[in-house]
Amino acid sequence: MFQKQQKTSIALAVMACFAVPVSAQTGADAASPAAPVAAAAAVATVTVSGARRQDAVDEDPRRAPTSVYRITGEQFDQKNVYSLEDLQQLVPGLNVQSTDPADMQITIRGVGDGGGQTSGEQNIGMPSSVAIYVDGAYLVRPGMLTSLGDLAWADVLSGAQGTSFGANATGGVLDLHTKEPTFVPEASISASVGQHNYERVQAVLSGPLSENWAGRLNLISSGTDGAVTNLRNGDKLNGSRSNGARGQLLFRDGERFKLRLSADYNNSNSDPQQILVATHTINGVDTYLARSKAVGNNVVYGPNIDIDDETHTHIVQGGVSALAQWQLDNGWRVRSTTSYRYFSATPSLADYQSVQIYSNSGFQQHDRSWTQDLRFDSPTGGVVDYAFGLNYLGQKLDIKAHTYYADTTLPDIWLGTAAGVSRKLDVVRLGLLRDRSLSPFVQGTWHVDTDVDITVGLRLNHDERGGSFIRYNRQPFNSGYLQTTNNLPSGTLTATWRAAPNLSSYAALSYGEKSGGLNISSGAAAAAGLDSLIIKPERTTSGEIGVKADLDNNRLKLKADLFATLVRDFQTQGYDPVDQQVYLTNAGAYISRGAETTVHWAPSRNWQFDAAAVFNDTYYTDYDTARCPPEVLLAPSPPKSCNLNGKRVFNAPRVTANAGVRYEWATENGLKNFISGRYSWRSWMYGTVDDSQFTRVPSYGLAAFSAGTSGKTERGEWSASIWVNNAFDKTYYKRLVNTEYGAVTGYLGDQRTVGVTLGYRY
C-alpha cells in the first residue's frame, strides 16, 4: 500500500527552488478575454449565450452561440476547485460520477455516459458523449483530465456539439485552455494544507528563452486522506495522492505564426473504497445477512468498514501535443493540432467483506490515442465567416481483467455453488479495441444584417472500429476479431437576433451521432450471441432557445434558455439472466427537457453576486426491456425484463443550482482583502440505469467559505487565505451501486476540510 504520509519530492524541490514572487496577472490571462474583467472584480461562473462574440476565442466559427458556462483560471483558484468532480459544484446541469480516474462518467443535462453502473461494471469500449478537449486536443476518456491547475479558462457547452467538436460530443463539451508561456518573466508558488492530511503545492515558472521562444513549467503535487476508516487496521481509505508536471515551449514569429509544444505527465495512487450502505429483506429474507453469517463476515455499515483486504489503483498517464497557428496576409487563419496520449491503470481490487471471498482481482487498462486536427478559418468582417477542416483519431485499448477467488471454502458458500467450484478459480478476461475515425466538417455564420446571424454547420465522421473479447476458466468465450464501420453525420442550425444593444436571443437545432462501441470487458450475452458484442451509434437531436440581457451598464447580466434533447439507440447496460452477465447494449430512447437561468450582479466594485439553476426533466420514452432492479429480480417469479417507459433517467437530478457572493475591499496600508461563500445543491437521482430504489442517491447541498488578504512586495505580491469546503460536513454519496443479494454499497463524498493557502508571485 502506498504511503499516505509520504513527502513528495516535487513539492520539496519546488519549495526549495522558488524564493521569488509572482505577478497577479499572467500573460495567458492577459490574452484571455475574461482577464481584464477578472482583474477589476472576479466575475463568477458566467453563461455566454446568444450574442455575437467579440474575442479571439469566441469568434471561432465552429462554435454555435448556444449555452456556455465559462470559468476562468482565477475563479478556479478563488473557489478552491481543482478537480473535475468539484467542477459540478460551479456548473448546474453537470454531473460527474467517479471513484478514480479509471472509472468516471460525465453527463450534462442528463445526457452523457449511459453505463449506469448497475453492478459496478466499467463501461470500457463505449465512448462518452461528453467530449473533453485540452488546448484543442481531444481526450478519449474523462480520466485523462488529471487536474484543473494552471488554466486560463474552461468552457462547459451544453447540447449536441458534434458538428463543432466531433462525433463523441453529442451530450456536450468540456473545453479547457491552459495558460501559455509568457515573454515576460514570471513565477509563482502556492501551498495549501488542511485537515485529513490535505496538501496541494503548485509552482509555475514562465518566461522568455530567446527573442522568439518562451517556456512554461507547471508542477503540481496533491493529496488527501479519505473519509472511510478500516476498523481492522485504522487505515484511512478513499483518498488519493498525485504528482504531475506540464512543460511548454512557445515560438512566435510576430502575429504571423505561433507554435506551442506541450508535454505532461501524471502519476497517481488512490484507494477507492465502497462502504456498505444498506441491506434489504426481500420475500421475508435478508439474503446478504444470511450469507454473511454463513461465512463469518462481520457486517459493518458505513461510514466505516471492516475488511481484510483493500483496493488500490495506480495510474500513470501523459502525452505530448503540438499546436501550430498561421495568420496569412489575406486574412485566412490555419490551425493544426497534433497530439498523442497514453493512459495506464493497474488496480488491485478487493471485496468489501471482512473475510476473503475474492483475492487480488484487477482490471488493467492500457489506452493509447493519437489525433490530428486541421482547420482553416476564413477572413472575418464579411457577410459570411466560415471554417472547414479535417479531424483524425486513432485509438488502441487493451484490457486484462481477472477475478480471482480465495483458496478457501468460503467462495462457494457465499455464492451458493457446489463445493470446490470457485475455490482458487481465476476468471480471466482479455479485451482489445482499435478505433480509427476521419471527419471533415464545415461551419459558418451568415451575417444577414447587423442584428441577425445564421450559423450552419455539417460534419461527417467515418468511424472504423474493431476488437475482440476472450474469457477463460468460467463460461469460456472467444469472439474472434470483430469489425464495424459507421458513417456518422452531425449538423447544426442556429439563428441569433440582437433586438437591442444589450438584448439578444437565439434559437438552435442540432443533430449528432455518437460512435458505436464493443463489449470488450463483459463479453456477449448468451441469449443474443455475437451480435450483442457490437453497440450501435447513439443518435441525439437537441433544440434550444435562449435570451441574454445586460442591464444597468452591464452590472446586471441575465441569461435564460429552454432546451429539449431526444436520445435514440441509447447506449447503456443490459443484463442477460442466462449467464448472469452485465453487458453494454442499445436501449430505446429518452428525452431531456428543461430550463436554465443565470444571474450575475455586481452593484459596485466591491460586491458581486451570482446564481444559476437548471431544471431538467429527463425520462425514458422507449425502454420496455430494461434490466429489472434487485427489488424485483430477487422477489418470487421475477419477470425477464422491466418496462421503464415514463420513468426518470439515472444520473439526472431534476434540479441543480449554485449561488455565490464575494466582497472585496482595500485598506489604507495597501492590503487587498476578500470574503466569499458559495453553495451548490442537487436534488435526488437514480444512481443506476435500472431505476433501483436501493440506489437512489439522496439530494444534498454543499457550502464553502473563504477569506483572505494580499499585499505587494518590492518585486511581487504575496497572498494568504483560509477556507473551508463542505462547511456543514454534509454526508453525501458520489455513487451508489447494487451488489450481491440486495445489498447496496456507496462511495462517500469529501468530508469537511478546513485549510490555509499561502502564495507568492512576481
Summarize the structure in words:
- By secondary structure, this protein is mostly beta strands.
- It has a single domain, classed as Maltoporin, Chain A.
- Helices cover 7% and strands 53% of the residues.
- It is built from 9 helices and 41 strands.
- The protein has a 22-stranded antiparallel β-barrel.
- The longest helix has 9 residues.
- It is globular, with a radius of gyration of 26 Å.
- The protein starts with 8 loop residues before the first helix and ends with a strand.
- The N terminus is likely disordered.
- It comes from Duganella guangzhouensis.
- It is found in: Cell outer membrane.
- This is TonB-dependent receptor plug domain-containing protein.
- It is a multi-pass membrane protein.
- Belongs to the TonB-dependent receptor family.
- Overall, the morphology is globular
CATH class, please?
A: Mainly Beta
How many domains is the backbone divided into? 1
- Can you tell me the CATH topology? Maltoporin, Chain A
Contiguous runs where pLDDT drops below 50 for at least 5 residues: 1-59
Structural category: mainly beta
Q: Number of helical runs?
A: 9
Radius of gyration: 26 Å
Q: Could you state the CATH homologous superfamily?
A: TonB-dependent receptor, beta-barrel domain
The level of helicity is under 10%
Strand content: over 45%
**Main sheet characteristics:** 22 strands, antiparallel, barrel
CATH architecture: Beta Barrel
**Overall number of strands:** 41
Distance between the termini: 40 Å
Could you report the average pLDDT, rounded to the nearest whole number? 86
Family: Belongs to the TonB-dependent receptor family.
Domain TonB-dependent receptor plug: 61-173
Membrane topology: Multi-pass membrane protein
Domain TonB-dependent receptor-like beta-barrel: 282-726
